[in-house]
Amino acid sequence: MSNHRPDRLRRSLALRNLFRETNLRQDDLILPLFFKEGKGSLPIASMPGIKKMGQAELLREIEKAQKLGIKAILLFGSTLDKDSLGSKSYDEKSLFHQAIRQIKKSSGIILIADVCLCAYTNHGHCGILTRKNEPAIDNEKTLEALAKVAVSYASAGVDIVAPSAMCDGQVHSIRQELDKNYFSDTAIMSYAVKYASSFYGPFRDIYDSRPLSGDRRSYQMDPGNKREALREAMLDAKEGADIIMVKPALAYLDIISVVRGAVNLPVAAYNVSGEYAMVKAAALKGWLDERAAAMEMLGAMKRAGADIIITYWAKEAAQWLSLRG
Ligand code: PBG
Asked: Whose CA is nearest to atom 5 of ligand 1?
């Protein structure tokens, strides 16, 4: 008979806690928040519990999150005034820029802002198109626009910019432009390894940012590729990224794991809208225990190698962690 009995170390909660190899911490969590122009807030049908918010609601939500132990938010901007170039995205007088300034004035939270054009373009693509009605991205023009957005957010006070357009060279061009404008302290969290995923579905309902024609497969990664993830991560590290993100997270745990091994920068995982929506939907039907399922998912992302996790469960997870027996 074998004397190997791994269950000796599982016999009580204290033993299990003592030998747990990875632990999720409150400090690992980043809460995504959605800004909208105008007063009040609007619920998002496919993401129960999540709203897009005007400035006043946003400030209240941040205060609430901070009380629960959240230290960082990932903020998404938007406008009702979309055009083909997404030009509102770098308008320093916009309501979103005003909201950034207000948040920095009234709270010490770490403010990360998503840098992309898709909530600002009338065609819904993440960059500027080469020709009307043709979903091909003009790389040079898009790089220029993204750098302008990043500088405008930095000048409004964000701590970290997070380019998510999957435009080759975006980290380099943003870093250069930030430094040229004396924002060398502003960090870059790069959506370096971002797959063309069906799990972004609910997110695109928020700002009606579904591409009008075509899809995002010409700039986001093919889900079948793993070596390419390393190529993307290395390129962005070389271009000056401070944090490398893998997105989505749940169906890409193997990718988080290889990226963690390949770069010596912090690795972020984005637990995206579809991953949240599917657990929420099952929980509402009584088919899954939301708390247990969410914590198991977040724990798995950490175990796979993520240092930090962007999640719509951030507030709840912070509470669950502080209640944990
Ligand atoms: C913008 C962006 C997207 C997400 C984050 N930034 C949508 C997309 O690329 O289609 C998705 C976030 C989520 O699904 O939770 N480019």
From this structure: 164
